[in-house]
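Task: complex structure prediction.
Instruction: return structure tokens for all chains below.
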Amino acid sequence: MAVKIVIDGIRKSFTQGGIALPVVGGVSLDIADGEFVAIVGPSGCGKSTLMRMISGFERPDAGSVRIDGERLTRPGPQGIVISQHGSVFPWLTVQENLMFGLNAGERAQKARLADHYAEMVGLKGFENAYPRELSGGMLKRVEIARALVVKPEILYMDEPFSALDALMNLRMRNELLRILQEERHTVVLITHDVEEALYLADRIMVLSPRPATIQASFRVAQAHPRKLSSPELQQMKDAILAELGLTA
Ligand SMILES: Nc1ncnc2c1ncn2[C@@H]1O[C@H](COP(=O)(O)OP(=O)(O)OP(=O)(O)O)[C@@H](O)[C@H]1O
Ligand SMILES: [Mg+2]
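Output:
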């Protein structure tokens, strides 16, 4: 597979109270076209900062990010971010939210496309509802549909399911896998849920505490749908938790 994203030695420090706070301490990683990479790490280790650099929203102090060989200096048109904090417009209906990112084409055609994606994430019948009329889980699905409707080559997801309850979390994982089977995207998923990473990703990178560096990496070869209770995945889970310092 061709390499899609090349991350080469990126670093980032912030200044807090006049003191330099190193947040990302040199991360290098190649991500293949169509690959699903999950990045797990302890809270506050620099995951969101790393994601903002990989998606072009933040400039690294050192090192570079290349997408299809081109150096990234600002958010690229080929990627879309689902952030930790929502980004649905409260004054637009579900359909209008989904149509928002679509520039070209007739209104009727855009509306059809929006409805197709609303159906894909299980929101059929709610196209004309406003965000305040939806549950938290439905809102999150609007968020995801809004990202997918523009058919991004790269999907950057920063803890997209962490605000959901356990049941909805499981449903969204499966919906995401189903959508990825229909339309292949390159995915970078930030999560602190090791099982979520094991369930979804082709490769899992474990970050060290701040300043974040890649401490270990795991390849998950199992076909979907995966059984988290399988001995291989249980073993890998233990190994990842041990890397995170969470097992005896
Ligand atoms: N713009 C900023 N200015 C100053 N400090 C920042 C800025 N953004 C992040 N930080 C600091 O960088 C560190 C890492 O933050 P970041 O949001 O990347 O962590 P995270 O791993 O995503 O955390 P969480 O798991 O809680 O989402 C924190 O100590 C935070 O205070
Ligand atoms: Mg974060």
